[in-house]
């Protein structure tokens, strides 16, 4: 690949790097500017040269202004700048993502604790490099609404190299791809699968056909990059009346599907309503989606609360979510995490009652009794199953250390 014209990728924000490439027939020249030149200048230059070599670039001028970027960010910016110099957007050139490095993340679990799913702009290295430190159960690296149209390619490279190289620990990494009505989604999927991310959030999902289309591209990418078939999970974002009406067929469309979430902004817009503090404008949609999810035995997540400064409204909605039966909530700020986690964890009173039910059921079952009373309430097998669910959830949340 050649550097055919001037091109730029990246920003001068903290933790980022701006890369400028210029064509020349005088060989390859790399210039680095960085406040940490003495400590990391050689390492930065080595990352640039390695990336250019992998791309087959043998001539051109490459200037890097480093603002504290990780090597993975610098590589992403170099790749993006070179492709832009070729006018080769990822929508008309399938970039050959690295196929030799193995996925370092463990195989994702369909049924795991997902109380919080925090959105982060995949184009912003300063946001995604430390995303795991906040303690959200899952993060959603966003390639869709958070990313400007002319930065879709840069966000994709940023995502790929970040997930490949940053240790996110136990934090689940989900990627929201662009909609199926855009030219971006297929290449988004290639980047997601090649990176080893845990799953994909299908934006604006309206039918089982949408799920099947994404599933087919995911399988194709897994085979291309030598990833275990079936490893990449799926979830659906339901953002329209059609998506809500088709919720059950969507969540049962693929064995990869682990859950669904409603997107409040788009849904309210399609229903010609504004956000209400009591949630009445979305009550029917939430209920329909919850029933579909429970019927399909997948998880269900509520939309984000848009005003991060309105903690009172946020807390009221989280409490309502919990009472309705949601598994978790989409969020946009680290300061929302702890309240959601505390609210979705079983209370000491709920845990104590669940313990009592479990112990009494074992005793009554041994005596051949199927229906009996606990604390003056009639209970039977369904109560016991719910009690076991409460204990399992309490263990996952780290608030139960008993022997059940």
Describe this protein's structure.
The protein has 404 residues and is an alpha/beta fold. It has three domains: 7-85, Ribosomal Protein S5, domain 2 (2-Layer Sandwich); 116-344, Phosphoenolpyruvate-binding domains (TIM Barrel, Alpha-Beta Barrel); 348-397, no CATH class. It is built from 14 helices and 14 strands. The protein has helices at 37-55, 71-85, 125-128, 152-165, 185-195, 208-225, 241-245, 247-251, 264-271, 283-296, 311-324, 337-344, 348-366, 381-397; strands at 7-9, 17-22, 28-34, 60-66, 116-121, 138-142, 172-176, 199-202, 233-238, 257-262, 299-302, 328-331, 372-374, 377-379. Strands 5-6-7-8-9-10-11-12 form an eight-stranded parallel β-barrel, surrounded by six helices. A four-stranded mixed beta sheet has the order 1-2-4-3, covered by helices on one side. The longest helix has 19 residues, at 37-55.
